[in-house]
Amino acid sequence: xxxxxxxxxxxMANARFIRVSPQKARLVVDLxxxxxxxxxxxxxxxxxxxxxxxxxxxxxxxxANAEQKADDAGxxxxxxxxxxxxxxxxxGPRWKRMRPAPMGRGFRYxxxxxxxxxxxxxxxRAVADRMAALAAEQQASGGVKGxxxxxxxxxxxxxxxxxxxx
Length: 166
Description:
Elements: E1 10-18, H1 22-32, H2 37-45, H3 51-73, E2 82-91, E3 95-100, E4 106-111, E5 114-122, H4 124-165
């Protein structure tokens, strides 16, 4: 098995059609960008904004996706080494509504929705440590296999020499 290159393991999660203004959601998302996932969860838990709960669910989903991706790849993932690499809020569709106004008129207003995207990934140092551990493990197992291979060849060589003598 060849040693794979330095590859970050990460996860991504989308929350679409969240019933909050994108401007209000961006205020909360800006708080967690670049933080460790654990610190970001703590920040969201104590933020007094309604959208913080939705962003927290999205962040937890991204962490779970990263764990699942690591399990599928057969790699070990330390959740404490995950960082919020990218998070942003896009505008979703607007709900157009009418409100009664004086003299039989109607005032239009819009209820805004948001699409929230959160991505988490391992820190570069964690990737380097994981790859170094993997390389050390492969080298150690390669040494044992090499010793077994040499011993097997020596036995086969002796057996051939014994057959030639007969």
